[in-house]
UniProtKB/TrEMBL annotation, chains A, B:
Domain of life, per lineage: Bacteria
Keyword set includes Flavoprotein: yes
Pfam families (alphabetical): FAD-oxidase_C, FAD_binding_4
Annotated FAD-binding PCMH-type domain residues: 39-219
InterPro entries tied to this protein: FAD-bd_oxidored_4_C, FAD-bd_PCMH, FAD-bd_PCMH-like_sf, FAD-bd_PCMH_sub1, FAD-bd_PCMH_sub2, FAD-linked_Oxase-like_C, FAD-oxidored/transferase_4, Oxid_FAD_bind_N
Membrane listed as a keyword: no
Protein name: FAD-binding oxidoreductase
Species this protein is from: Devosia salina
Protein family: Belongs to the FAD-binding oxidoreductase/transferase type 4 family.
Amino acid sequence: MTMTAAQIAAALADIVGSDGVVSDPGKMGAWLNEPRKRFHQNAAAVVMPASVAAVQAVMRWANENRVGIIPQGGNTGLVGAQVPLSGQEVILSLQKLDNIRSIDTAAGVMTAEAGVILENAHKAAEAKGAMFPLWLASQGSARIGGVLSSNAGGVNVLAYGNARELTMGVEAVLADGRLYQGLNALKKDNTGYDLKDLLVGAEGTLGIITAASLKLYPLPEDYETAIVNVASPEAALDLFQLMRQRAGSRLNAFELIPWIGLDIQLRHGMLDADPTASASPWYALIELTRMAGTEPGALQSALEAAFEEALISDAVVAESLSDRTRMWAFREQMSECQSREGASIKHDVSVPIAAVPALIAEGSAAAEKLSPGIRPVPFGHMGDGNIHFNFSMPVGADPKAFMAQYDEAMHAVIYEVVLRHGGSVSAEHGIGQLKVGLLKQVKDPVALEMMGAIKTALDPKGILNPGKMLG
Amino acid sequence: MTMTAAQIAAALADIVGSDGVVSDPGKMGAWLNEPRKRFHQNAAAVVMPASVAAVQAVMRWANENRVGIIPQGGNTGLVGAQVPLSGQEVILSLQKLDNIRSIDTAAGVMTAEAGVILENAHKAAEAKGAMFPLWLASQGSARIGGVLSSNAGGVNVLAYGNARELTMGVEAVLADGRLYQGLNALKKDNTGYDLKDLLVGAEGTLGIITAASLKLYPLPEDYETAIVNVASPEAALDLFQLMRQRAGSRLNAFELIPWIGLDIQLRHGMLDADPTASASPWYALIELTRMAGTEPGALQSALEAAFEEALISDAVVAESLSDRTRMWAFREQMSECQSREGASIKHDVSVPIAAVPALIAEGSAAAEKLSPGIRPVPFGHMGDGNIHFNFSMPVGADPKAFMAQYDEAMHAVIYEVVLRHGGSVSAEHGIGQLKVGLLKQVKDPVALEMMGAIKTALDPKGILNPGKMLG
C-alpha cells in the first residue's frame, strides 16, 4: 500500500497546488544539500504550503496515508534533522510562511511565522527600535521555525538565553493536522503544562511550528568590546567570574579562543589586521552592553581590576565600530578557518562552566595520545560552558586518511571526557540523524522512555520527522 | 478492592517505617490546612519518605494498588494542588528530603532536594557569596519541590525569570517508581525533549520532583530602590519602558501600587512611616541592582530623565537599608492589608505588558458596574504584565453577603477582560483544584488534548495528584 513518489506528488498538488510541490529529484538540491554534506538521501517530494491551513491539510493527508513528513526551515541544521533518512519522506518547507504578523515594542513581542529568515526578524525589530537578540553565523538563511525546533544558541546566550528562553509561545500543527494555538505575549502564565518548551527543541518530531511569539529587548545604546590575553583556560574562568561579579547580566559575550586560531587566520589572510594586543596562548573576547543614559568605561575599569589581580596580561578595547567588527570576525571565522588547514574533527559539547579548563586539558591530552601531532582548536562560549572542541589534522597529514582513521575514535575519546564531567554531547546542534545512536548510549534511560512515551502520545503513527532524535 | 485507610497506613509503614506515616486524621492539620482555608478534605494518610529510594518504593506500591498520591512541599500553594480532593488520596510530603546536596559557585549551580525550604536555599547560597534570586512572601515555609511544581514567580521575575527559568535540571520519581535523572549544571544541552520544563509547573501530576539543580547568580554589591509618583497606569507603562531602555536587565523590580494601598496601611498602623514622597493616585516601586565596582546613581539619573519627560511628579530614593525595607514592606503587605478592610475578591492574572492600563481601567469599570462602591486594589508586577487584580468590599458592606453575591460573578467579569486582552487567568498560582473548571473553559482545546495525552502517557493509571489541573 506504499504510495509511489508520483502518487505522493499528485496528492500534494491537489492540496497546495502544483506550484507548491517539487517532484523532480534533480530540482531538490536546495532542500537536500545540507551545510556539511554528510547526508545524501532523496525525498519523495518537497511541499511548500503557503498558509497554516495548508500545513494542516497536508498533515491530515499524511497522517491518513502514513507518509513521513520532514519539516524544514532554512536547511542550515548541522545534524541532518531537516533532510531525509529513508528517502521515502516528504520535505515540508515552511519557506512560504514568511510573514511577520505583528511587532509590539511596548509589549516586547514579535509574532513571526516559521519561514521568516532570522536576519529579517532582526531587521524588523530594529526598524521599530527593538532587538531580537539571537545571532547565528547562519542567520542570513536560517528560518525561525528551524531556529526554534533546534533550540539554537549563538554568541549572546549568556545575556539573553537560547531560542527557548527567547520564545513566549508557539503555534504548531500536530501530526493529525490539529492546530495548537499557543501564541501569546505573556511573561507569566501558569495554566497547564509547558507545551511551548516541549515543541521548541523537538526537531519537528512532535509538531510543526508555524509561528512563534518572540521576546524583544530594548536596543543597547552601545557595546564595549575587548580582546584580552589570558595565560590559560583557568585564568579565563577566573576572569569570567570577575566579569560576572562586576557586570552581571550586562556581560553579553565571553568567548575563548586559542592562539592557533589567530595564527591560522593571519597566515591565510583572513583578517585585515591583528585584532589582539599581543601574542598570547589564549584570548578572551569580552563584550558588555551599555544602556541609554549611562557612561562608557565599565569594561575598561573591570579590565584594570583584572590586571591588578594578574588575570590578564594585555588587552585591547575596541575604539571604533571597525575594531569591534574585526574582533567579532576573528571569533566568527574560527570554524571556517580550520578548513584552510585540511581536515578537522568537530565536537559541539558543553560541561558545567567550572569544568571547562579540565575538559580542554584532558581532552587535548587524550587526543594527542590517540593521534600524535593533532592540533586542538577548542573555542567558543566559555560563559555557557559550551566549547566547540575541534581538532585540525597534524601538519602535512592526508585529510582523507586522517578522517578515516581518527574521526570516530576521536569522538569516543572526547565524549568520554565530556560525560565524566557531567557534560552534554550536543550543546547546540541537536541530535537529528547524526547523533541518534550516541544519544541512546549516553542519555538517562528513563529520559529516553519518557521521550518515547510522549512521542507516541502526540504522533501515534510516527509520521513526524521519522527516525530523527529518537531513532 | 479499594483499600481502607488503615490498610493504606499499614502498607506505607511497611515501606518507610511507622515514624514516616501519619494515619490519625486529627494529627494531619499541618498537611491539610492550606493558607486560604478553601479546601477541607481529609487524606487517607500522610507519608514522609526520607530518601529518594523510599519515594520510589511508595510510588511502586501506589501504582500497583492504584492509590492516588499528592506530592506536597511546604503546603503554601493557593489553588489547592497540594491538598486532597476526594479524601482517598495519600499526601506524600517531601519534607524529610531537605539536603542541599552541593553548591558550586564557580559553576553557578546549587543542587537542592525537594524538601529544602526556600529561605534555607537563599541562606546556603549567600553563605557562599552567591544568590538564588527567587523571593516569595511564603519563602520561610515554601519548599523547593513545591516552588518548582507551581513554577513560582515573585518580585524579581523581571530580571531573573520564574522558577522554570531558574532551574537547570530536575530529578523526579515517575508514577510507577522509575527515577528520571535529569540533574545537570549545563547552560546548554540539546539532547532531547525538554523534560525538565514539562515537570516544572506540572503540579505533581506527571512526576514527583525529588531534587533540582538551581542557577546561582553573583550577589549584587547593592540595590537602588525608589518609590515614585505616577499619575496613571499609562504613565507607569511609559516609565517602565524608559527604565528598561536605561537599565536593561539591571531593572530588578517594577511594582505598581494604587493609593488605596498606602491609605489602608497607614490607617491600620501597618507602616512605621510613610514610604512615599507625597500623595499620588499611583506609585511605582522601582529597584535596580548595582554590581561590584560600579558607581551608584543610575536610578537617580534615570528618574531625573523621567521628571523631564513628565512621567513622574515626585519620588523618594531609599537612602538606607531601613528605607528600602519599609518600601518593600509597603509592597509586600498589599495582600494582607486588604483583610483589614473586610472581604476581598482576588484575581491572579496577566496580560501583555502594554495592555495593563486597559486591563485596570476596563476591569475597574466593569466591577463598579456590577457592585457599586466596590474598591479596586490592582497591584503587583507591572513589568511582567502580572497584576493581582483584587477588590475590597464597599465600605460598611457585610463581608459574607458581599462574597456570596459577588465572588463568582466578579471572576467572570474580570476574566472576560483578561481574555479579551490575550491574558492568562492564572499568572502565578496555577490551577490545582480551584481553577480546573475555568481552565476547561478558557484554554485552547488542542492544548488540553495534548496535556491529556501526555498525562496518560506518563501516568497511565492516573495516580499522580488525581483530579488536579486536568480534572
